[in-house]
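Narrative progress, year one. The postdoctoral researcher (J.K.) led the effort to move from monomer predictions toward full complexes, under supervision of the PI. The following entry was the first complex the group processed end to end, covering 553 residues in total.
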Amino acid sequence: MTTMTSIATAPMTRTASSRIWNATRLQFTNAWQSIGLPWLILGIIFLANLAIWLLLYASTSGQDRADISKGLQYSGATSYIFVYMLIVAIQAINRTFPFALGLSVTRRDFYLGTSVAFVIFSVIYGGGLTLLSYVEQGTGGWGVGGRMFTAVYYGSGPVWQRLFVFVAIFLFFFFVGMASATVYVRWKSTGLVTLGGVFLAISVAFIALATWSKSWARVGEWFATSGPVGVVAWSLIPTVIAGVVGYVILLRATPKN
Amino acid sequence: MTPAVEVTNLNKRFGSVHAVNDVSFTVTENKIYGLLGRNGAGKTTLMQLLTGQDFATSGSIEVFGASPVENAAVLQRLCFIKESQRYPDNFKPRHVFATAPWFFSHWDADFAERLVDEFRLPVNRPIKKLSRGQLSAVGVIVGLASRAPLTFFDEPYLGLDAVARQIFYDRLLEDYAEHPRTVILSTHLIDEVSDLLEHVLVIDEGRIIIDEDAEELRASATTVSGLRPVVDEFVHGREVLHRAGIGGLTSVTVRGLSVSEREAAASKSLELAPVSLQQLIVRRTGSTEKEFEQSA
């Protein structure tokens, strides 16, 4: 019996940062749905767009071609990937929260670790889109004047600006998604329906206010003068608020079945 | 020795439901505890409170000397295997066994692998496609291989066949002998685990109604059987827990007997038999055996 030591007294040496990092790694385990699948869908959307661009390119010439290419700067083809990240964030929380607690992870470590994972995801996706925007530019719109990654909303500034715009948009969708997911984890569908109602009410109030005070022109002006970088910089405020609110909500959540 | 768990006047209410009602008890380190009770008695709620997964309404819980709620130092030493544990649906069992060691520092990968073989668990099948028994095996393997100083198994065997359940009991006992730790096993298959248990906690309608050493509990009652008049005379004036009979024969369960009383019974050619833990608990909780089994 001398070799037998009680494991209860054995030392535990995990630091806070290694605990948080382990929670981060959970999001990278079999992450096909978070990392692989979105690129695949984006690729399919790209191919569909490319087919249309080819048709347009083949059936037009000269000034018409240039006009079309100019019109394509309003392409919303990439918007899917941002909204999809909202869903990725919701799924990630919803399916790993009960599991992480089952592995004796604290809510705090889980939330911080998952946030780190979402920041990494944002950088990966933002970096990818930035790269594609340069490829698109360098190839003259994939050889056919097509535009998807250099759409007007992202700007055409230097590399840090493009990267900032893309990463910040991803961060916004990840953290808003995460906050919504914490509402679901804590209050289930009742919470989500209430949250949806509140947002709808706020949006309607804003639209009513802008219409009533005839300020739509000023709203448009604000978007125009702020530019892509300015607008996206402002989005960091709701992103941070969503991050803090999500944390507070999750701290009192319990894994239910 | 510091207790592994110390619970004082613990209460948990869900609206009007009093799921845990003024519960106090202590769990000593390096013992196997049975947390027994009918469905809805409060077993899972109590374990969720002990593992910081749920929040107490009032009262205090100390696990290894501190509150488990959001306490990484305490939680790192716990493993809680729930019957209803959810796994990420993009996971396969091999992902569970790959991630678990990040959180349990005593994880034994070889042991986990041996258990996978013994339970014949398909590690590359998506979690969603596992049968109920295979899903239970995932939990059982994590619970055993994590070697957490305090391990909770909440009805861990749902859907496991008799062979798999026996493997679980055998491996638990073997590994426990080599690596002593505190185990709290909640179950309603009392007779199956009764040899495993060193201490018994019985919870009924949110209250702890039995908190006794398993040996003492077993010795606390005996069944006396024989011819009805002889038995009746012998048990006269004793606390009778249960009585059954056919024709001229009868068998009566009474509270513990002393050595001289046992000799007296033998001399009257009465037969004495130990009472199973399950019968004893059923009788002490005042429910009929049938009721108890139906809740299983």
